[in-house]
Amino acid sequence: MRLITISITLALPLLASAQRFVRFISTDNKEYYGDAILPSDTTDASKSKSARVITGDILGEFTITNQAKTIKTLLSPLPNERVRTVRCVGFNYVAHSEEAGVSIPQWPILFYKPWTALNTPSDPIPVTAGYQTQGNFTSEMDYETELVVVIKKKAFNISDDEALNHVLGYSVGHDVSHRGWQIDRGGQPQPQYSMGKGADGWAPWGPAIVSTNIIKDPQTLNLWTKVNGVTQQNDTTANMIFGVKHLVSFFSMGTTLLPGDVIFTGTPSGVQLGKANPNWLKNGDVVEVGLENVGTCTNAIKYT
């Protein structure tokens, strides 16, 4: 009995060390949290066909079991109602600021989306009538791929050096943006972010939350966007003006970050905003946003 007890104890740390958190519907039509089992030729969690079931709370105490379940449908990594706040950063890459004709910010530019904006890695992005054509203007839908940070424990007035101790892991998100409502008719002379970015379903994210056990340094990751298979954005998080440590610290200045909060950290250059002849997203366009060592979200624009 003593030998058996020792072997079980030694096995527990392996099971407790999460890798790629996914939330999914299995073939039994039940919802699970799991640690994605990757195919041998990819680190894209959206390609996973199965996951080891997780019991407990991924924002608290949990165990990764040896029970594997087949993935039928990947959901967003956390239910919308578990995400307390969707925090966002604007113009966090020099080249993106330049293409938009905006001065390089000296401080992070912060805004928020409602959690109803969150969407799964694969469901359509709904565009309701008010964001389509409306009399004298044409829809100006744009894409933005972003590194997403997920908070695991409360943070208030923390330093840059403390910041990563409060991070569960990283995901990729699509900050869907309507430039017409954001800029042209959004409160000139300054942008009005809420109307241009906060509609339901305008923040697909996933396909997983990749633990800080795997991604030690979030400033070394390639990120990209493809529209209908054509690459539009391709950059690295090394080029962020304000890195993850500083953003988490800055957001906590006088405001409490809570477990489940997510931070969209800004997009690199390559969006349609600022182009002489922009090719705005249209009904049926398929947008893929990706982040190295995390995976891809692939969502179609759908007029509703």
Automatic annotation (TrEMBL):
InterPro entries: Fumarylacetoacetase-like_C, Fumarylacetoacetase_C_sf. The keyword Metal-binding applies. One of its GO terms (biological process) is oxaloacetate metabolic process. Residues 1-18 form the signal peptide. One of its GO terms (molecular function) is oxaloacetate tautomerase activity. Keywords: Metal-binding, Signal. It comes from the Eukaryota. Residues 86-301 form the Fumarylacetoacetase-like C-terminal domain. PANTHER family: ACYLPYRUVASE (PTHR11820), FUMARYLACETOACETATE HYDROLASE FAMILY PROTEIN (AFU_ORTHOLOGUE AFUA_1G02370)-RELATED (PTHR11820:SF112). Belongs to the FAH family. This is Fumarylacetoacetase-like C-terminal domain-containing protein. It comes from Psilocybe cubensis.
